[in-house]
Amino acid sequence: MTWLKDIIGTEKAIIAMCHLLPLPGDPYYEKEKGMDYVIEMARKDLHALQDGGVDAVMFSNEFSLPYLTDVKTETVAAMARIIGELMSEIKVPFGVNVLWDAKKSLDLAAATGAKFVREIFTGVYASDFGTWDTNVGETIRHQYRIGAENVKLLFNIVPEAAKYLADRDIESIAKSTVFNNRPDALCVSGLTAGAQTDLQLLARVKDVVPDTVVLANTGVRLENLEQQLSVADGAVTGTAFKYDGKFENQVDINRVKEFMDKVKAFRS
């Protein structure tokens, strides 16, 4: 029995991404449409995901491209407003992810009552965003300082668009991450959003940390979900739920229903 059952209500949980459009301060923010439009699009996606039967949702500033590793205050403020306006309509457990800033993700969780955050908490990477450093000791102390100690931490140990600077295999990373940091879950990803997570990589991680929740973090689709969930304890899914399976599109409730029907059949 894992915490997924307590917090989300089921094992083999599907956490669906609610991708927010560009926000104030982002290069592609549509000023003429403003925040009301961003909120309306988030509302549509949230309802499509919930009505389609997902187990949980995670709000992220997915379209704040290109990403920062030290996120600006205006981004967190905008995300808090969106979640605040949708709060009475959120019917499933939810988490947040302020890309790519662990402390800001925790700030947003504390402000909104999110149950979990997903972030890059550990490691040093060569990435599309430059040299990407972390400070997990400071991040966890910040979590306790702001009263967010009950927020579950989903550690992404294979960040998208980045490579670990040290020459370490995935088993070493998984084992030391669990030993040193006690993550609530490890997330294993493909190269970019929507790219399939390597099944062998998932299996190697799960084998060395059998008592830790391991999530397939990208690329779980209708065609491979049984295969992925036979190894992973759950999945974080975004692109698969969108019209035509395209990252930039809105959520298609029919794709969500078809996917979740298959998940429920697999679970039973």
UniProtKB/TrEMBL annotation:
Q: Which SUPFAM superfamilies match?
A: Ribulose-phoshate binding barrel
Q: Highest taxon of the source?
A: Bacteria
The record's InterPro entries line, in alphabetical order, gives: BtpA, RibuloseP-bd_barrel
Family stated for the protein in its record:
Belongs to the BtpA family.
Enumerate the NCBIfam families for this protein: thylakoid_BtpA
Question: What is the protein name stated in its UniProt record?
Answer: SgcQ protein
- The record lists the organism as Bacillus oleivorans
